[in-house]
Amino acid sequence: MIYSLGYGKGEKSMSDERTIKPNTPADFTPQLGDYKTLQPFRYWCQKVLPLVYDDSLSYYELLCKVVDYLNKTMEDVETLHGDVTSLHAAYTELQNYVNNYFSTLDVQAEINNKLDSMAKDGSLTNLIKAYIDPLVNEQNNKITVLENRMNTFASLPEGSTSGDAELIDIRVPANGFNNDAPYPTAGAAVRGQSGALKKDLSEIFEKSFTWVDNLMFNCNGYLDTTIDTFSTAKIDVSAFNGFRIYITTYTAYNGTYGFYNEPFNEKNKPIKWKSEKNENYKIYSYDDIIPYGAKWLFVSCTTKKKDVFEFRYESILNKILADNVDKNYLFAKFLTPVVTIVDDDTKKGSFSIVKEICDNNNIKCSFGCVWANIQNDESSLSLLKAYQQQGFHIMSHPDINNANWNINNPSYNLSTAEQQLIECVTYLKSQGFIDCDHVVSPGGANSEPIQQMVSKWCPSMIGKNDNTSNHLFGHGEYDLRRIFIDNDHNFDYYKHYIDLGLNNNDWVIIGTHSWDLNETSKKILNDLIVYIKGKNISIETYNKVIRERKIMYSLYPLVNVTN
Question: What is the mean pLDDT of residues 483-507?
Fold first, then answer.
């Protein structure tokens, strides 16, 4: 018999089924003794016994008493006999009921009846409420946030990408801006919020500087206290590193300004300074970006013309759309070296080689998976799923043959390449692989048509294998470069290219083919990992790094800069 916990009559059993097996039937029926039916004791007495004449009973009287007592005792015994018989019959009936209970019991119906009853009287709701309500509230809060954000999305035109949606999402204001209402355009959002910040911060600046008389910069950038015709504005800029400033002063001889990270004195040279020869008294204008680490700004003016001093600033956010944006400030967070290892092709029986090297060094890597190599290979598929559970990353490698992808190949066919890409990503997603839509292009194909095609479907692609790394925007997220390890070079060869990338604060991607590594190249890979870890440089999976850099690549088309 199969029963399950369910709710509502007529419902099918749940997947969590239990088989209820009755115990061995009870067999304890007692056997009744051989009871004799007792008849009343009939008595008689021959009156030949002598009579007594005192208070004692005569023999006859005594015998009458005994006979009467015996008759009452036999009546009680007979009643007891009947009671025992009834108990025996009741026990037999109970035994039969117990032995046959589960053969006639509808457990599912009993469970359903109980749940129905608990639902009607509210006890079921009260029982699960304490467990369900917190989960429901959490999900409702998340849904509310998503709804609020989705309400700000405009309808995207045909051909739009997820990047378009992110640019539309920029219309959502920070708390307190624009009365918390979405801006009509992304540009309005940036200008409106940065403009409001500019106004607020301008008020701060207007109140934040003081004058230091008889002080200016000499030609070497050091402070000079021997001149009494100049005064210097001392401005606290510690909270505004990375902002662009505009300064107008009335100067003579030399127009000067400087940024300091410590309280200034005659021996303390500024972080950054500028001086321009000026033979006549005149208005002099500067513009610069406040460097990181700067605490004080000093600007020298002629003492008698302090009243013409003007200082204003502009957030570097206002320069995002400008050609001269300083990427080193805007993207300082991404100027930290990081390394990723991507193993290609997932050939049966070989890709575990790189996995073992990673395990030995306590790191994770990514696998560029050719879906055709695993779709009929359950053992490889199960192994890759287990790898993902351990923190490794599976990527899409659409085809082992790059003929359809290489624009210089006579068999190049963009339509076929696109079909292969869709088939690969669709299959890997159907098998439960996460972030698998990041692409390793077959043969390192990276032509512009290929990049445009991949961008329709996927968030990024590793392209050319040219022993270069990826500095900031590099060639874009659809043409990421690799240093590929083969069997033709030694450790120092690869170390050279890796050092170039690490010293330039790049994202270094190391490519491998597990199936092609010999004992020497396996050792080279292991030694390179040990070397990189020894420099305290992080080795991360591809999806982790590209996710962290998503915002940078999203801004790349807007920020017209080169590395």
Answer: 95
User: Homologous superfamily of 332-555 in CATH?
Assistant: Glycoside hydrolase/deacetylase (3.20.20.370)
Q: Which residues of 228-253 are buried (b: 16+ CB within 10 A; e: fewer)?
A: eebbbbbbebeebbbbbbebbbbbbb
Q: What is the pLDDT of residue 100?
A: 75
Euclidean distance between CA atoms 288 and 294, whole angstroms: 13
What is the assigned CATH class of domain 208-319? mainly beta
> Dihedrals φ, ψ of 392, to 5°?
-80, 160
- For the entire predicted model, the pTM comes to 0.48
- Determine how many CB atoms are found less than 10 A away from the CB of residue 132: 11
* Domain spans in the chain, listed from the N-terminal domain onward: 1-21+54-147, 162-202, 208-319, 332-555
Q: Would strands 461-465 and 439-440 be described as parallel, antiparallel, or unpaired?
A: parallel
Which tens digit of pLDDT belongs to each residue from 101-137? 767 777 788 888 888 888 788 787 777 777 777 777 7
- Asked if 231 and 211 count as a contact pair (C-beta separation under 8 A), the reply is yes
- Report how far residue 167's alpha carbon sits from residue 387's, in angstroms, rounded to the nearest whole number: 35
Residue keyed to tokens 């306590």: 362
The angle formed by the CA atoms of residues 81, 85 and 88, to the nearest 5 degrees, is 140
